[in-house]
Amino acid sequence: MLYILLSGLPPFNGREDEEIMENVKIGKYSLSGVRWDAISSEAKALIEKMLTFDYKDRISAREALADSWFKNAEHKIVGNKLIKECMANMFMFSATSKMQQATLSMMVNFMMSKEETARLQ
């Protein structure tokens, strides 16, 4: 969700459904391009930790919330422009195709361990 809030796109993209699914399976995503130029290196580092392919190496939600990016954000005032950009990114994402939404759902299920899935259920 952080990836989507910051960029307006899901982390795994492609020109065709097969390419999207392949990128999900191998954990291929990008943090470069015009959308990412204004994003801090701390935010990118957190996203990389959160999208680590091997669930054993991926940080937990608790660890993510303890990350320096969130800790530093507590002391910053968020301007209306940034809030509007995040909201626009969420609206842009929600307007994407059903396939992208299904891919995100599959990504969560595919990348989570059975223990994580059982805990969530």
| Overall CATH class | Mainly Alpha
CATH architecture: Orthogonal Bundle
Which structural class matches the secondary elements?
mainly alpha
CATH superfamily: Transferase(Phosphotransferase) domain 1
Rg on CA atoms, Å: 15 Å
Spell out the helices and strands N to C. Answer: HHHHHHHHH
Mind summarizing the main beta sheet? none
Unreliable spans: none
What fold name goes in the CATH topology slot?
Answer: Transferase(Phosphotransferase), domain 1
Tally the helices: what do you get?
9
Principal-axes shape call: globular
First-last Cα distance: 19 Å
Number of domains: 1
Helix content: 55-70%
- The portion of residues forming beta strands comes to under 5%
Q: Please, what is the average pLDDT?
A: 79
Total DSSP E strands: 0
Could you characterize what this model shows?
By secondary structure, the chain is mainly alpha-helical. It has a single domain, classed as Transferase(Phosphotransferase), domain 1. The chain is built from nine helices and no strands. The protein has helices spanning 2-7, 17-26, 34-37, 41-50, 61-65, 68-73, 80-94, 98-111, 114-120. Helix 2 (17-26) packs parallel to helix 8 (98-111). The chain is globular and about 40 Å long. The model has no long low-confidence stretch (mean pLDDT 79).
